[in-house]
Description:
Number of domains: 1
Helix content: 25-40%
CATH superfamily: Phosphatidylinositol (PI) phosphodiesterase
Distance between the termini: 13 Å
CATH architecture: Alpha-Beta Barrel
Amino acid sequence: MAHFIDSIFKTLIFVSLSLGLATPAFSGPVFWEVSAHRGDLLAYRENSMSALIHAMEIRATSVEFDVHLTKDGVPVIYHDYKLNPDDFIGLTKPVLIKDLTLAELKLIPYSTHLVTRPSDTNLTTFEELLLAVRKRERQGRHTIPLHLEIKSEKEFLHEAAPIDQLAKAISDVINKIEIKTPIIARAFNWDVLTEFRKHQPTIPRVLLVDRGDWAKIDFPQAIKEYQPIAFAPNYQDLTAESIAYLRAQNIDVNPWPVNDPIQADKLVQLGVAGITTDHPSVFLQRYESVLKQNACLNFYRK
């Protein structure tokens, strides 16, 4: 039934576009995902274990986080390539994660003087997150799909671990700590997804797109080469035509960072399948009925 409904709305889009009419409004027929950006970062420090687990507690549809590789090859969760001195005690200048071992990282505690929300003691490893998820599974507690962003933007390759090492190290952890909760790989550097696919061919892939790059994409070629389940562009670059085209290919669009309710409403009307947001609680409440109505469209639950 979900596929039938989806097909109807795809047809409506293309008829409207071909006739030069306005794209039909979507009150929710394809919208099903509110993804917590770096966890529930308004409740806890971003990318911390507490923020990621709290996203599960509030029942976000999924949770997004960033992974780097330490000097000794351990995947850890943090956004920037360098540790920010404002985030840590005893750090006087930025330090590349790839230049520190895990043991060295664990000796650098998070600071609390600039944080108004609760904070973990130090960085979380990817393995620690999977262990926490597996524990929740065994306890019968709620988990949500994990959007794993592999940090490897081309302009920062000199600050990141080599993509082959990064992809394999992440894959090794996934193989070591088996969980039932879905994992989705995403990256701005699509080459790292090709590398990751060699190790984890069945894990779905999402193509992240930087601001200003959306109009440059050769969509047929990108779809053929990378076989994504979704594109995740900056919300400001989206057009009705591009969303319609991707929907016709059964590929979702999940823009970021969507934090304004009015802007979110416009995107839902355009036909995005989801949003990645710093305010998951706000949008879970705002779209509660739509999310329930469209649970059958949830890719991860099929």
